[in-house]
Amino acid sequence: MEVGSVRERIIVALLIYKFGEVNVETEIPITEPEVDAKLFGESVSIKTITGKSFGGVKLIWTVDAQKAREFSENYIMVG
Question: Is residue 63 classed as helix, strand or coil in its secondary structure?
């Protein structure tokens, strides 16, 4: 569980670096479902996948392999 939190903080830090602290809201209650931060007021759920078939960091974190595949097939790079 804690590893996921560290990964989330790293990605949030990258969002702050890219878009500025005023555009990234980080004071989200840990109990808030599927919201790890808000970017320009829009909810962001940070997810990551690692492994040979995906390589690199993606914005999804799930134990559901089908959901992970769906995300990777529909992922759109922004920016």
Answer: coil
What residue segments make up the domains of the chain, in order of their start?
2-74
On whether the pTM is more than 0.85, the answer is no
The helix/strand/coil state of 15 is helix
Question: Looking at residue 16, what is its pLDDT?
Answer: 93
CA-CA-CA-CA torsion sign (13, 14, 15, 19): positive
Take residue 54 and report the two structure tokens written for it.
């995906």
Name the helix (H) or strand (E) containing 76.
none
- The closest of 71, 43, 73, 41 to 59, measured between CA atoms, is 71
Q: Return the ∠ at Cα 19 (arms to 58 and 34), rounded to 5°.
A: 45
Please state the length of the chain: 79
Quote the tokens at residue 27: 């004071």
